[in-house]
Design a protein that fits this description.
This protein has 805 residues and is α+β, with helices and mostly antiparallel strands. 22% of the residues lie in helices and 28% in strands. Pfam families: B_lectin (PF01453), PAN_2 (PF08276), Pkinase (PF00069), S_locus_glycop (PF00954).
Length: 805
């Protein structure tokens, strides 16, 4: 039997907790206002209406808003009092007023927001939150009679089922306006709206005036400038136009999908869907695609670059006008000058005349003015003689800028842009030798201090990491993200952008909700059980090294197996070595790539708990990050597929030229098989061409034979890629050539370990002249590039075409 005081006690106990309460299920009425931590929830539990505090909780600003109920991250879709926050929700109220309007009263009972309707009957008026996310003010006795709805007044979010368009009679438009920053929902400077002239296209505007993006016209299925928005893939889009209005609406094909379209503080419009598996928002598409295409994203004297994060930075001689706003994603205030201009056209003898800082590879700012002058020196003088002039450029004419510089961008390829000359105070560009020497002295002192701090930090971190590693025995899911197959489909846009592929599957580009670019590899031909596959992936996920591609997560749903890696912006090594339209890697970069790849292999062979043999070393599997640091890819596939997959490799196009003889003879392999493949790849790094290729005269050549002969003769310079014009460190070149020839020895016992290769390339040990591998001549003697091998285990023979890549 229950104690008679139990229920009163529980009632008092739970009433004292700070738990949001729900009144009248999903509505606000005259007798039931909303205040404090109370909320109302839509009937199906999709959306919540209540007071919330965005971002940084220290500002004590509260707002009335609507957010998703079934999303673990607080994600607002509508805000009532965007520009008039309240500071005390406990004594504030959202209520039905005497005239029937829905109003927000602050702690002083002053009205700060209202639906602003003409007088309506208040005794039967209720505010209801619907499962669509729409807040409606309607007649309770006749729910079809709607007086006002939030869908007609969107803030920054367009929800499925709502309209985004215009009333042709009144001229009123539903448009989206970004938040000011991530902490402040006040209207920002970017907005999305339908063409006011009545066409079926959308514009993104800067400060409501400057259009910098258009969706293109609707062709009945999609917007011409957004091919991602097909009507039959994930979303159904519909366009309506009649005499009184024209608008778009959309809905997800899967009604259980949670999605939203947002005019983001970044100046991009983004379509996002919620991934239950990873508990994250996934970016489906964004426009403009390039962040730096957003007009004046970085504000006055701010420069945008796509190559690094953050995208915005201040140009030379300027600092952030509002660092706090910059950290919240609002760079609209731009940068301010560190030192005022002298604005002097006469040399004072003290070197205080304004100077110009050279900025090559720039997208030039807007609002330029042309000046008729004879040459570049006159163009500089024309700018210097005008106190309002802040920059100039001279290319087939003189162009100058007055006042703030807007829309600056550092082009990804410096040669693709123009040169801008930025006007700075003389003190910002010191040139005296004494000052330079003083700076050098200070720099050396700072460097020594930093190194000392690093040494102390290294010792402390090492001790801390050792203790932490002893206690760390977490499960695999705590280290890797377990993706659902459907989530990866959306992340990769249904695997539409293929990066490459091989015998084990194809790789596709994708984008995580936080805008991190990833590469998803669809594995083929794996027959492991679920438990074994997860165990092997867990092992691979714990292997981390600067020269190994990081595994972020995986998917395992029946036969659908995928691995998710970090995306490498400079692609694979083969694209830089063998494509004529690619940039030429200088010798220093090639040497560092060779050394980095060797370190990665040495780590797999000698530093892991059990030796991992890569089994497929080739330029295609060496990926390059933004700084051209090499990363070994697919290093875990040998472990996943198993050791007995020589048939796969020997039939795989692009790999046969890298196989060690023991592979071909069917003998057991060791880590020395990777050493052989590395040596073959090293020769290609040196020469910049495939080891087996056909010349323009139709003659087939096998470069390793030439390389061995030239190394023996001491003529290593002739092996260097002709595109380098002999520009290489001869000592390094000689060392690399000898290492390559040692690595491709017939007998695996004659080959060095990868640890020894690293030591040689680091100049820790010397390397002697290698013997000539006999198998190379066997390959070269066949004019057709074919050589027959015997399988010692079966007695069968087969042929390999070494000219196939």
């Amino acid at each position: 039997m229950s104690h008679p005081l139990l229920f009163p006690f529980l009632f008092i106990f739970f009433s004292s907790l700070n738990i949001p309460r729900t009144f009248a299920a999903n509505s606000i009425s005259t007798n039931h206002p909303l205040s404090g931590n109370q909320t109302i929830i839509s009937q199906g539990g999709n959306f919540v209406l209540g007071f919330f505090q965005p971002g940084n909780k220290s500002n004590h600003n509260y707002y009335i808003g609507i957010w998703f109920k079934k999303v673990s991250q607080l994600t607002q879709v509508w805000v009532a009092n965007r520009e008039t926050p309240i500071s005390d929700p406990t004594s504030s109220e959202l209520r039905i007023s005497d005239d029937g309007n829905l109003v927000l009263l602050n702690q002083f009972k002053k009205q700060v927001w209202s639906t602003n309707l003409t007088s309506i009957a208040s005794n039967s008026t209720t505010a209801v939150i619907l499962d669509s996310g729409n807040l409606v003010l309607r007649d309770d006795s006749d729910p079809s009679k709607v007086f006002w709805q939030s869908f007609d007044h969107p803030t920054d979010t367009w929800l499925p089922g709502s309209k985004l368009g215009m009333n042709k009679v009144t001229g009123e438009r539903q448009h989206l306006t970004s938040w000011k920053n991530s902490d402040d929902p006040a209207p920002g400077i970017f907005s999305l709206e339908i063409d006011p002239n009545g066409s079926s296209q959308y514009f993104i505007l800067w400060k409501g005036t400057r259009q910098y993006w258009s969706s293109g016209y609707w062709n009945g299925h999609l917007f011409t400038a957004i091919p991602e928005m097909t009507s039959n893939y994930i979303y159904n889009f519909e366009y309506f136009s009649n005499a009184t209005e024209n608008y778009f609406t959309y809905s997800p094909i899967d009604e259980n999908m949670i999605s939203r379209l947002v005019m983001d503080v970044s100046g991009q419009v983004k379509e996002l869907t919620w991934l239950d598996g990873s508990q994250q928002w996934m970016l489906f598409w964004s426009e403009p695609k390039q962040q730096c295409d957003v007009y004046s994203l970085c504000g006055p004297f701010g420069s945008c670059t796509e190559k690094s994060l953050p995208f915005c930075s201040c140009v030379k001689g300027f600092s952030e006008a509002s660092p706090s706003n910059w950290n919240l994603g609002d760079q609209s205030q731009g940068c301010v000058r560190n030192t005022p201009l002298q604005c002097s056209t006469k040399t004072s003898g003290r070197g205080d005349k304004d100077k110009f800082f050279i900025m090559p590879g720039m997208r030039l700012p807007v609002n330029n003015h042309s000046v008729a002058v004879a040459g570049s020196e006159d163009c500089e003088l024309a700018c210097l003689n005008n106190c309002s002039c802040t920059a100039y450029s001279y290319s087939n004419g003189c162009t100058v800028w007055y006042g703030d510089l807007l829309n600056l961008q550092q082009q990804p390829d410096g040669s693709a842009g123009e040169t801008l000359y930025l006007r700075l105070a003389a003190s910002e560009l010191p040139n005296s030798k004494s000052r330079k020497r003083r700076f050098v002295g200070v720099g050396v002192g700072v460097a020594v201090g930093v190194l000392a701090l690093f040494a102390i930090a290294f010792i402390l971190i090492s001790v801390h990491q050792r203790r932490r590693m002893i206690a760390t025995t977490k499960a695999m899911e705590n280290n890797l993200v377990l993706f659902k197959y459907g989530d990866l489909q959306r992340i990769t846009k249904n695997f539409s952008e293929k990066l490459g592929g091989g015998a084990f599957g194809s790789v596709f580009k994708g984008l995580l909700p936080d805008s991190t670019v990833i590469a998803a590899k669809k594995l083929e031909g794996l027959h492991q059980g679920e438990k074994q596959f997860r165990t092997e992936v867990s092992t691979i996920g714990k292997i981390q090294h600067v020269n190994l591609v990081r595994l972020r997560g995986f998917c395992s749903e029946g036969t659908k197996r995928l691995l998710v890696y970090d995306y490498m912006p400079n692609g694979s090594l083969d694209t830089k070595l063998f494509r004529s339209n690619s940039m030429v890697l200088d010798w220093k970069t090639r040497y560092q790539i060779a050394l980095g790849a060797a370190r990665g292999l040495a780590y797999l062979h000698e530093k892991c708990r059990e030796c991992i043999i890569h089994c497929d070393i080739k330029p295609e599997n060496i990926l390059l990050d933004a700084s051209f640091v090499p990363k070994l890819a697919d290093f875990g596939l040998a472990k996943l597929v198993g050791r007995d997959f020589s048939r796969v490799l020997t039939t795989m196009r692009g790999t046969r030229g890298y196989l060690a003889p023991e592979w071909i003879f069917g003998l057991p392999i060791t880590s020395k098989a990777d050493v052989y493949s590395y040596g073959m790849m090293l020769l290609e790094i040196i020469s910049g061409r495939r080891n087996a290729e056909q010349s323009e005269e139709g003659k087939k050549t096998f470069f390793p034979v030439l390389a061995v002969n030239k190394v023996t003769e001491g003529d290593v310079l002739s092996l260097l890629d002709h595109k380098l014009n002999g520009d290489a460190d001869l000592e390094e070149l000689d060392r690399v050539c000898k290492v390559a020839c040692w690595c491709i020895q017939d007998n695996e016992f004659h080959r060095p370990s990868m640890g020894q290769v690293v030591q040689i390339l680091e100049c820790a040990i010397e390397v002697n002249m290698p013997p000539i591998p006999r198998s190379l001549y066997a390959l070269a003697e066949n004019s057709e590039g074919l050589v027959f091998y015997s399988d010692l285990s079966s007695g069968q023979s087969f042929q390999i075409n070494v000219n196939q890549n």
